[in-house]
Amino acid sequence: MEAFSDGVLAIIITIMVLEFKVPEGHDWHALFELVPKILSYIFSFVYVGIYWNNHHHLLHMVRTMNGRLMWLNLLLLFWLSLIPFTTAWMGESHFAATPTALYGIILLLAALSYWLLQRAIINQHFGDSSFVLAMGKDWKGKLSPLLYLFAALAAYVSPWISGIFFVLVALIWFLPDKRIEHILQGR
Questions:
Q1: Which spans of this chain does the record mark as coiled coil (predicted)?
Q2: CA–CA gap between residue 175 and residue 70 (Å, rounded)
Q3: Which of 10, 44, 89, 120 is least surrounded by Cβ atoms within 10 Å, i.e. has the fewest?
């Protein structure tokens, strides 16, 4: 499952970069026209990287692979696979309200899918109270969907406000989930 997920995430990043077209002109102004696309690509590249990193850590906690985990993982990958579309639309539209809101909604659905996958893995550790306690303190996982929702709604007020919410979520997840690293080191 990890190898398959890594492959899908690599394809997602590749699709995003293929959206870039060479500018018509040959000066800095021609490149300046691509700034919205570049910014949306940077957001998305960082988000896909964050998901890849944390997903990698999370899968180390799987005790037994089963159909439920595989389907939940596929649900997560489905939402992540829509990131290139929303990234391109957001960049092309110069962060118009609806594309930016949809970007936030896709990130919200990816976050909820990640949470479902995490809960299914936690359920495999029913008798391991230290693991369940450590994973239960998931303030980032509880805060992120709320911030994505705010970002989606704020898109209709100002794309800059949405951007602040997107950056905030990325900042809190930039470092891998230390709870899992501590559990793995304790083994």
A1: none
A2: 25
A3: 10
